[in-house]
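Here is one chain, start to finish.
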Amino acid sequence: MILSEEEIDRTLRHGPWPPAVTLDPSNRVSGNANAIALGEVLFSDPVLSKDGAMSCSSCHQPGRDFTDGVARAEGRKTLDRNTQALWNLAGQRWFGWSGDSDSLWAQNLTPLLNPAEMGHDAHSVQSAFLESAHRPEYEVLFGDLSLESALETTVNVSKVLAAYIETLRSGKTSFDHFRDALAQGDMKMAAQYPEPAQRGLQIFIGRGNCAFCHSGPAFTNGEFHDAAVPYLLKQGRVDPGRAEGIDRLLGSPFTLNGDFTDDPRKSGAWAVRNVRFQHGNFGIFRVPTLRRAARTSPYMHDGSLPDLAAVVQHYDKIDMGRLHSDGEAILRPLGLSDQDAENLEAFLKTLSDD
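Its structure:
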């Protein structure tokens, strides 16, 4: 064991894992076994694309940890952003790279209704389900499909998908066993955690300042930060990031403050009620979880970093000129040795070995 008492205290803040299961009050089928089963089937069914050409699993491939292995997602055309993994989304505040949704079910509507992805509109989803083999299972959950508005059906389908996706929780890793041993004072067990990973952890929670954004048990604060990654898509086109997300969020009827939530108390609506655009929102993106990240390359919102070694090098040699001048000033070049970089990568891999 090479950690100090202060480092042990910081390490303990990244657990315990897994978190307690909590249901989504805005989704009346959250935790419903029938909805979960139907959602899992629908996830891989091309009925969710208007022309039957693709499914959710076309990009979020289960065999690739619910990613696709390419820099930017391939829908009906190449999209602007990298496909994010679907692990551990339950209980988050914002969804998508730019946070244009404040619930998992609302986020599902984005690809479903995007002409460049699944290509449905509100009416075509209902039409597809009226003729679908899934209609009986759907009506067990929501009643007679023909009595709903087309928009209600679309939202209900997104909630069924959310019921399934929120069950995708990663398991304990060697880091978690190490962290739990520290919490129990079992230093003999803790000493089994490899020393290179311990030294990488020291950098992560220490001079690397990685834990500022990648905090807590899920190794993300769920908010938006500038990682000095270019947001130029091609000449004359940029990705506005959170700035665009806020604009879409405030214009959406599908928020926790809207009419489609199933929570009469509108729990969590305070976030969308209080979000405001700021100049610094331009070109910043949501911090992803690091759990299972070693399995979900490439990285960053544009998929520009091919592997963990490249991510470590990016933060080690951070281009300060790309950071917002009015930003948080939390990043700086780290000056890592080759061994430091290898140790940090070794630590990150222990967040993915469940």
